[in-house]
Amino acid sequence: MNDRVTPPMHALPDGEAELTLVVRLPWEDVARLGQEAGRLAAQMRRPVTLEEAVSHRLRSSRVAAHAKPAGEQPPAVSASASVSSLPSRPPAEQARQAIDRITGTAGTA
Questions:
Q1: Residue-wise pLDDT tens digits, 31-44
Q2: CA-CA to 14 of 20 to 30 Å: which in 56, 69, 85, 96?
Q3: Does the reported pTM lie above 0.85?
């Protein structure tokens, strides 16, 4: 028997749905989400959460997929498709470098 619990889904007044889930990501992906949140915050001129950045990214990729000519299928995207292959490093080093990239302190130490 499968003991997994289906995450709750909530209907929102604007016709969208809200789904809560937990995703395990490499630190490099978290850093890229932070960069995306920074770009979005600059564009919107207000603070933006990582959740908003993810939601915006999913929406914009959905819109881009629908804008393709008829018959053309969007390419399958894996969870790490946007992450370049990097040499293996200890997790603590990966975390430190990702945090440095997010905070903009990379190379200042």
A1: 888 999 999 999 99
A2: 69
A3: no
